[in-house]
Amino acid sequence: MKVRWQVNESNPVRVIDVFVAALGLAEMGFEVAKAAATGRPPYHSRQPF
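Above: the chain's sequence. Below: its structure in token form.
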């Protein structure tokens, strides 16, 4: 289940979500990772958060 469905429409975290989505992280040089088709996370399991 996606978090968007669990977060109330008026929750301020939605503003942060829209802001980050509009940044264009790939254009800034950040590598945007996508989850594998197998559902594995887009980060190495030993990488700290």
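Residues 1-32 form one domain.
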